[in-house]
Amino acid sequence: MPSAFRDDLPPPPPAVRRPVSDERHGQTRTDDYAWLRAPNWQEMFKDTSLLDPAIRSHIDAENVYSKAVLGDLDALKAELIAEMRARIKEDDSSVPAPDGPYAYGVSYRHGAEYPRFVRCAREGGDERVMLDGEIEAEGTDYFSLGGVDHSPDHRWLAWSRDDKGSEFYDLSVRDLETGDDTAELIADTSGGVAWDARSHGFFYTRLDANHRPSRVFYHALGTAPADDPLIYEETDTGFFMGVGGTQGNGFVIIDIHDHETSEAWLIPAMNPAAEPRLVVRRQTGVEYDIDEGDGTLYILTNADGARDFKIVTAPADLPGKENWRDLVPHEDGRLILSHLILKRHLVWLERRDGLPRIVVKRLADGAEHVVAFEEEAYSLGLGGTYEFDTDTIRFSYSSMTTPNQTFEYDLETRERRLLKTQEVPSGHDPAAYVTRRIHAPAADGETVPISLVYRRDTPLDGSAPCLLYGYGSYGMTIPASFNTNCLSLVDRGFVYAIAHIRGGKDKGFRWYEAGRREHKRNTFTDFIAAADHLVAKNYTRHDRIVANGGSAGGMLMGAVANMAPEKFGGIVAVVPFVDVLNTMLDDTLPLTPPEWPEWGNPIVSPADYATIAGYSPYDNVKPQAYPPILALAGLTDPRVTYWEPAKWVARLRAVKTDGNPVVLHTNMGAGHGGASGRFAKLEEVAMIYAFALKLMGLPAKRPAA
């Protein structure tokens, strides 16, 4: 395929080599670009002016180069942004959810980047704005709302904000009678709170200097945050902490976990001064998640070999494992994802054969029924509810062709009531599109599900371009949900595909186990198998596939670029986790110790070191031809630090044998999630899509079907 880029592009910015050697387990590695890691990253995330000028100069030069390479796409990006924005209902609002005398919801003003949090009388009526994100964001380049939680007595609102993208949230308290914030500003929190039952105060977690939520505090309203008592401190740097309340409002839960192990402590919501009570002490590999109603704990767990999880009960005053009793037994291949306990019903979301469904169990007699749908591929979400004594729930449904629908469901009568259908102001005809679920054979006999959407008039003769998305880590399942943005590609003849590769839980917990630690290579070979199958079935050709993934999915992009560069016409890696070995060897970074269960600990284990060294994208760049690559980063990203893609791009340019561009764009005012506003986010999506369209010859948008 001829190059899509001009021959007279300026040279990319040179990256100075300053070799640093590291010896572990008898192996010596040299890192030429370690200097790009800011030694003062903790301080820099809070004040970017502290970034080393040499590092800033290099990143700025990369952004100038990306503008030179992609600058001729500005008109196309503007066109794409206009299309995508036209599919967003600008004055959108949620269906208010009842809680006592009020109903709470979210709405947007026309043109607003950020939501308003509103409430009205339960029976309906005029809305009152409790918090307007657009007002709070004034004067900031970046703005993200964390938790927004009203108190049980409906008098107070605890809310939090991050204005740098570093995910350090400042927590405030608003008096809903006056509309004013109190003077009780709490810095460096995780963002959310758990109120006590009397609305006298709340529990929250505070981040340490290494961005770990290591301490739980209680704040009594009207007191100085500096005097907040420490309730619990987690000294193991391998664990995260959070706080939340149970559905029955009986307890506050301190939740401690990594990616495979859980521990929980209970505090009576009516007595926040009580000593936390341990449920079950952590045991490596055993997870449990608690809800509570009427003094009974309902626990979702993989204990006793229940790898696809089961639900057990225990008395809240005697929560030890010796008192656990199976309520929903384990079934191999039926993965229970989440559960919700109400006064008279237990409801859970499960996945069978790769597709989700909701199951309802009446507590009085154990009668069960299922809520399911018929499309080949779809997304189903179990909505929460503020109330415990209710027989109604909400759930959301969509597919790659069907806009999101919100239903209210009566657990007794089984009546579904459609509350809202996502509006697409510029128009959308589901019949003009096709959604499919196909299965790619992997080399070891497994089959990899692939969700597809394309226009009904797209020729399936191998000529169509394809954007193939993948993630495949942490057990995360990428839903086959409605995505208005991707229609800008699909309407230009693209096949949009999601590869449900190992490392997620698409086919049960075993699918996750088979794609992590020593089995991580399966994630990459599954993605390549998906690309091969799309070609074999004439959906596309290898040189017509643009691969796309972000974060751990960006690591996937780096791995497949090294393993099978000839299978892709282009690669887009968003905040890519590509310097895996160096990061897992650096236990000062925010996510490293909690990540060891996912990737392995190369500090102590020679086997884990060898495994990670065998696939880490940065360490496996080699002299070969690579397709064009676009990498996106965020300067204040605490999850995948900016220097990972910066180092990767520098090494790619130094080693690869082709003339294809490798482009790095760093958002200097954002973190892991990119730009914060709902329309500002479209700038990044448009950049990705314009890059893909450029590689595929800028196919024209087809007229509406």
Provide a descriptive summary of the structure in words.
This protein is α+β, with helices and mostly antiparallel strands and 705 residues long. Helix content is 18%, strand content 32%. The strands form eight sheets. Strands 7, 8, 9, 10, 11, 12, 13 and 14 form an eight-stranded antiparallel β-sheet that branches. A hairpin with a 2-residue loop joins strand 19 and strand 20 (296-301). The longest helix is centred in the N-terminal third of the chain and has 18 residues, at 53-70.
Q: Any chance you could write out the topology, listing elements then pairs?
A:
Blueprint: E1 20-24, E2 27-31, H1 41-46, H2 53-70, H3 74-86, E3 97-99, E4 102-107, E5 116-121, E6 128-132, H4 133-136, E7 144-150, E8 156-162, E9 169-175, E10 180-181, E11 186-195, E12 201-207, E13 213-220, E14 230-233, E15 240-245, E16 251-257, E17 262-268, E18 277-278, E19 288-293, E20 296-301, E21 310-315, E22 325-328, E23 334-341, E24 345-352, E25 355-362, E26 368-371, E27 379-382, E28 392-398, E29 405-410, E30 416-421, E31 433-441, E32 447-455, E33 466-470, H5 487-490, E34 495-499, H6 509-513, H7 521-536, E35 545-550, H8 552-563, E36 570-574, H9 580-584, H10 592-599, H11 606-615, E37 629-634, H12 643-655, E38 662-667, H13 681-695
Parallel strand pairs: 33-34, 33-35, 35-36, 36-37, 37-38
Antiparallel strand pairs: 1-2, 3-4, 4-5, 5-6, 7-8, 8-9, 9-10, 9-11, 11-12, 12-13, 13-14, 15-16, 16-17, 17-18, 19-20, 20-21, 21-22, 23-24, 24-25, 25-26, 27-28, 28-29, 29-30, 31-32, 32-34
Helix pairs in contact: 3-13, 7-8
